Amino acid sequence: MSGNGLLKEMGERIYAARKTQNMTQEQLAEKIGVSTQMISNLELGKKAIRPENLVKVCAVLNISADYALSGKEFCSPAGTLSQKMVSLSRDELRLLEDIINYMHGKK
Questions:
Q1: What is the pTM of this model?
Q2: What pLDDT sits at residue 82?
């Protein structure tokens, strides 16, 4: 795929993530300290984004750079587990800790 095709696909993923957050281009631009035109060009795949700005965009939109760039999540097993743990109750987290301690022989 050409570089322009990759930029267009990345822009589409960022656009979709922004819409999921019910955020305007103006709001996203303000949060990361860039112009609205830069966000527009990014979402349309017209221009590449600086790495430091990509990191900011991903943080604000709560997506990974892996996803923004490739459309795939490349999570380590620990990363996958930590994402799942966020929704556990306090009691469930204690139970999970007990299971982990048991697995490590620390009863």
A1: 0.66
A2: 72
